[in-house]
Amino acid sequence: MSKERFLSDLKSALGRMSEEERREVVYDYEEHFRMGAAEGKSEEQIAQGLGNPRVIGRSYAIDALLEEPKGGGDVKAASVLRAVFASISLTFFNIIFILGPFLGFVGVLIGLWATAVALGASGVAVVLSPIGALVVPGFVNLSGVSPLFLIFAGIGVAGLGVLAGIGMWKVTQLFVRGTAAYLRFNARIVTRRTQGGRE
Amino acid sequence: MNIQFKKGVLELCVLVVLCRKDFYGYELVQAISKNIDIAEGTVYPILRRLTKEGYFKTYIQESAEGPARKYYQITDKGREYQVELLQEWTKFIAGVNTLIGKEAAA
């Protein structure tokens, strides 16, 4: 493989790194080629010694996506999602061990969010039902239940919905952070397993 | 030697080598690949990650033979991490050797 080919394969595997970071990465390999050439090695020999540029590039891409944000902020959900897909592209192994559990958890989260929203919405509906009975008597029937009882019961249910929403917000954050931590761990195992390029 | 196993200890090797003196990338890769058979390109991602995590600093120095070189220098944090990893490694190897010894004796 020529130097040109090695560097272009490497660049194409770097993913969504910033232009500056890509330059820094490529610079290290250009320097490596330069010094190898100064020792009298051919481009082919140097590229052979370096290993598979696509595999090397992906390990940078995954490191970049999973970096701890500066200032101790949270990992962004969007970059976690991208990292999930970057990891999937690594090996078939990940389709089972990342995508399966990931989609399962996402499904459960969506279900729980829907429950929280439904609680809130039904609470609001019950609070408003006495008004509805006044405005459109044919459509809303209180069946003899006291309007005051309905208002308080509705506030109670809506409150439960809000509490469930707050709880779900925490759970979702925990899930995003947990996924990032798991991927960081997983990326290390997988890249160690496949990074060789000489097997 | 098994390839997974080598990847696991590569990080430790980079730290140990840089504890001795500052190296520029190519020189460091040669120092490691002279002793263990690795895909040389896998050393640079490790250098970059460990630098970002604050274990190394880099500086540029002119060289007599050509363009400027990027040198890596270990930080105090890096030295602490190296000691920690080295202890884990020594303990691990001692455990493996004990097992091997028992097998050979059996």
Question: Could you give a short description of this structure?
Answer:
The complex is a heterodimer of chains A (about 200) and B (about 110). Chain A has about 200 residues and is mainly α. Chain A has 2 domains: about 1-65, no CATH class; about 90-199.
Please characterize this protein's 3D structure:
- The complex is a heterodimer of chains A (199) and B (106).
- Chain A has 199 residues and is an all-alpha fold.
- Chain A folds into 2 domains: 1-65, no CATH class; 92-199.
- Chain A is built from 7 helices and no strands.
- The longest helix of chain A has 48 residues, at 147-194.
- Mean pLDDT of chain A is 81; it is low at 193-199.
- Chain B is an alpha+beta fold and 106 residues long.
- Chain B has one domain: Winged helix-like DNA-binding domain superfamily/Winged helix DNA-binding domain (Arc Repressor Mutant, subunit A, Orthogonal Bundle), CATH 1.10.10.
- Chain B contains 4 helices and 3 strands, in the order H-E-H-H-E-E-H.
- Chain B has helices at 3-20, 25-33, 43-52, 76-105, and strands spanning 23-24, 56-63, 66-74.
- Chain B has a 3-stranded antiparallel sheet with strand order 1-3-2.
- In chain B, helix 1 packs across helix 4 (76-105).
- The radius of gyration of chain B is 16 Å and the shape is elongated.
- Classes of the chains: A mainly alpha (199), B alpha+beta (106).
- At the A-B interface, helix 2, helix 4 and helix 7 of A face helix 1, helix 2, helix 3 and strand 3 of B.
**Helix proportion range of chain A:** over 70%
The end-to-end distance of chain B, rounded to whole angstroms, is 24 Å
How much helicity do the residues of chain B have?
55-70%
Biggest sheet strand line-up of chain B:
1-3-2
How many strands in all of chain A? 0
Radius of gyration of chain B: 16 Å
By DSSP (H or I, 4+ residues per run), the number of helices of chain A equals 7
